[in-house]
Design goal:
Shape: globular
Order of helices and strands: HEHEHHEHHEHH
Number of helices: 8
Structural class: alpha/beta
Number of strands: 4
Distance between the termini: 29 Å
Length: 175
């Protein structure tokens, strides 16, 4: 069994994801983990994703909506098939059913494409069924959520429609 050194950034990502998963149902279930390149966002998030069984997808510059959904479905252990809307429904259903977090690394690639931003919004909005709380989900009781990792915090927050204060409140709220 491999071990991960307990570095400060790992602790910060662990705390952020624990608070996102265990957040108050009135708080948003989407968060941005940001920091300069080379500060360990990817390594820390991947370690935490393995600990809490989150789905983890690392974006690529050439991906469009279909490729992203296919990669997310493969990470979920599902065979991608159907149209983009059908794959989106599959992703949303799996997240809502499992209650697991989806971590999207290298989200900076999505920032350059409005349709990718809208796709991530659609994923997040699709895991919340009308009339249900945001922390719903039948997995291990944890709320389904989306975390994106980026070096461009302000731009990502603006495009996702997540107020910086909202995700700071999510991360600073008592678990």
């Amino acid at each position: 069994m491999s071990q991960i050194a307990q570095i400060n950034n790992l602790s910060l990502v662990r705390t952020a994801t624990e608070r996102l998963i265990g957040r108050n149902e009135r708080l948003p279930g989407i968060a941005v983990l940001y920091g300069p390149a080379g500060y360990g966002k990817t390594t820390s998030a991947l370690a935490i994703a393995n600990e809490n069984r989150s789905y983890f997808v690392q974006m690529r510059s050439a991906w469009k909506c279909k490729a992203m959904l296919e990669k997310v479905l493969l990470e979920m252990g599902a065979k991608p098939h159907g149209t983009i809307p059908q794959m989106l429904d599959q992703v949303c259903e799996q997240l809502a059913t499992s209650g697991r977090m989806l971590m999207i690394d290298e989200f900076d690639y999505c920032v350059r494409n409005d349709s990718m931003i809208e796709l991530v919004r659609d994923i997040y909005e699709g895991i919340i069924k009308p009339g249900e709380s945001q922390s719903g989900g039948s997995g291990n009781g944890a709320g389904a959520s989306v975390a994106v990792l980026s070096a461009e915090q302000v731009k990502v927050c603006e495009l996702l429609g997540v107020a910086q204060d909202d995700f700071k409140q999510t991360l600073s709220a008592p678990a």
